[in-house]
Amino acid sequence: MLSDLVRAIDYSDCAEVALVLFCVAFALMSYATLRLTRQATDKFASIPLSDKIQDPRVDLRNE
Amino acid sequence: MMATSIVEPQTTVPSPRSHHVERLEPLEDFSYDDAIVRKFVTATVLWGLVATLVGLLVAILLVMPKLLEPLGWSSQFLTFGRLRPLHTNAAIFAFAGNSIFAAIYYSTQRLCKARMWSDTLSTLHFWGWQLVILLAAITLPLGITQSKEYAELEWPIDILIAVVWLGFFGGNFMMTLIHRRERHLYVALWFYIATIVTVTVLHVFNNLVIPTGIAKSYPIYAGVQDAFMQWWYGHNAVAFFLTTPFLGLMYYFLPKAAERPVFSYKLSIIHFWSLTFIYIWAGPHHLHYTALPEWASTLGMLFSLMLWMPSWGGMINGLLTLRGAWSKVSSDPVLKFFVVGITFYGMSTFEGPMLSIKSVNGLSHYTDWTIAHVHSGALGWNGMMTFGMIYWLLPRLYQAPLWSKKLAEWHFWLGTMAILLYIVPIYIAGLTQGLMWRAMDDMGRLSSPDFIEAVRASVPLWWFRVGGGAMFVTGIVLMVINHLMTWTHRPKVYDVPVYSARRLAPMPSVPTEIDTPTPTSTLQNAPVLGVAKTLDSWSNMTWHRRWERLPIRFTMFVVVSVVVASLFEIIPTFLIRSNIPTIATVKPYTPLELAGRDIYVSEGCYNCHSQMIRPIVAETKRYGEYSKPGEFIYDHPFQWGSRRIGPDLAREGGRQSSLWHWLHFENPQQVVDGSVMPAFTHLLETSIDFKKVADRVWAANKLGAPYDRELTEGPAMAKQQAEEIAAQIVSQGGPVMRTIEGGKTLLRMDSQAVALIAYLQRMGIDLFKPLDAPEQPATPTPVPAVAN
Question: Domain for residue A53, yes or no?
């Protein structure tokens, strides 16, 4: 049964399916990334600037 | 070591918005392990010098092929074919490898606010990696090679690489992420994750072999499939060993040096996922117009073109990080190196997709254009980013001011000018070669029918490369001096700050506003479809930020994106029978031809000669019928090559007499005036190990060659064919035996050259054999006139 299934697959469609999969994933990822808040991205981008320990609980306290 | 304590305040932490009190973990003391970074930086500097010196030597050998002949017997270990893989491996795995490890060990600890999980694993990683490099430096000149570009090392070293890379390095890195004290995984760490998992996948699947001894193995793939796997690996080695970790380096060290955050964090996320999604597809662009299926080649081109956008997004993100800080660039050599490095990243990632366009590739492939492209990336991007990082790290690691800022400035200008002096003539050489190979006159004949004409035109340009290479090495010597002198000014005891902080608590059950916003849609009360509300909530990226905090899950998603893309290309290539139609007249190699093929591989002939005639008019006129996929089904490993310093050999069988080949090995210039090929006299003076022929036949049979008598009588059959070839050479005017060192004599039939000639005379002739014709050695053409 498995061999019938494998034989029935037309592998030449792989390239087109892959392209569509990629485009969908890329579009969703880009859209989602653009929706990130400025507050969050500023916080993340500043992480390498200081070697000081940024305990995440400090974030809560500062809210 | 002197400890400086830095203590974080201890408080319980209520969250007013979430009305949630997080449980506090106990305070822990920790410090960063900079000793391991110092080791990797030192190794980077030293291997950088070695890699570029070997590069300079191979560049000189191309213009002075007889330079090392006075060394006599030992010169066989220092031919271009054996040293070129040593240069590429040293540059990639020793110089760039140690550089990315230095970057990762320094930045990961600080981004995670945690010491590396295990100092023992760090140390094992360092010495294990140096052992790999040492073994490569020993085995490659000895001709112990798998002959797959950037994957030449034999199976025991491959296993060692896997253990060191994944077991010591990957394990230590992942455990550090798990035990980190910073909730968010900064984007540089994502690039490191992608590097570790993808290189593991590439390394394992490209190196699946059948060993026949401690220093010899044969890939399980043949011909087209082997070529596909190799360039899936080869291209992604560039992507995930020379690009993603250096982007991680850029996203950490550039903001540090410029003292300002990255220009756009959003762009960095898109940059990361785009590269991860796209890069893995692009490998087949290395095989345009070859026997690879057309669909795979086109797909590779398409995805390569897509790489333009994210790559330039990354470059722009890097350069704009310096907004408002350009005044610093003029006075800070570190930023100068970074600016030039990022600019070369942009140039290389523009040129790479351009070269993947089939019509451009038809001109550029196999020429020096590719070499210029590779060096603009390796010297410009990897080199300059590494140098910038090292100059930034030296004062911090050795806790002493950089010994000479002026020397660093000199290094920068020498390096930059050296790259230009290297690549510009080589671009010209590449264009010259491509145009000369395809040029035809009004009658439709090749304008330069002799391959050597393009070589002669290239030699003056190769001399410029020697000059550029020498300048680049000089710059590295200045860095070695600066490194050494800064080290001598280090304190007697390094100051090691000790930090005191809590571990990360488990992920809060109630999301916090900044770290994990509640996934509610802004369209909650809007009159829209539920799908729109769901998409709106999803795009808040809450899920992504949860992944980012869960390194194992995040890693799995990276693996999935890489593996899915790979499988879409690999499965069809391996499963569709129509991709590799068999040819009834193509038969397995004889035992002697197998032995000759091993010599071809061992000598690194693929570094200068391709075995792939493309379906391009100029090429079929020069070399004969274009290559068919079915011709390579017994080729373990494939030998298509990637450049033509010498002519293509796919249809070499019968083109020249056996005596011509013998004379060519003895002294190439006596039959081809102006040849840049070194002499291979050792092949004339070393006997064939007929005992090993049996192992070779066994391996070929295991890999699908339908042998019968060969399995039991392989060595005897090889000797018989060797006698026939030797008789041919003698009948064409060659001597019966050769006097070798110590006054001994070696019969022609026993010399390795005879086995190699047997293989050369078999190349590409099966296609034209009539069905069921008995096996016959190729009919030689008349002996050409010998120059001396």
Answer: no
First to last CA, chain B: 70
Which pLDDT does position A30 carry in this prediction?
82
- Would you call A1 an interface residue with chain B, using a CB distance cutoff of 8 Å? no
DSSP class of residue B737? E
Q: Do B266 and A36 touch (CB under 8 A)?
A: yes
Please give the model's pTM, rounded to 2 decimal places.
0.88
- The whole-angstrom separation of Cα B733 and Cα B748 is 13
Tell me the domain boundaries of chain B. 2-488, 591-768
Dihedral pair phi/psi, residue B21, rounded to 5°: -105, 120
Contact A12 B259 (CB under 8 A): no
ipTM of the complex: 0.76
For residue B436, give the amino acid letter: M
Q: Residue B92 corresponds to which tokens in the numbers above? A: 């990639």
CATH H-level, domain B591-768: superfamily: Cytochrome c-like domain (1.10.760.10)
Residue B309: both structure tokens together: 């956008």
A46 belongs to a structural domain = no
The number of distinct structural domains making up chain A is: 1
Q: Are B609 and B644 in contact (CB under 8 A)?
A: yes
Domain range for residue A14? 1-36
Residues of chain B with C-beta less than 8 angstroms from the C-beta of A21: 564
Tens of pLDDT, residues B149-176: 999 999 999 999 999 999 999 999 999 9
Residue B625 distance to chain A (closest CA, Å): 27
CB-based contact B261 A45, cutoff 8 Å: yes
Superfamily assignment of B2-488 in CATH?
A: Cytochrome c oxidase-like, subunit I domain (1.20.210.10)
Q: Which among B270, B295, B544 is the nearest to A15, CB-wise?
A: B295
> A1 lies in a domain?
yes
Backbone angles phi, psi at B473, to 5 degrees: -65, -40
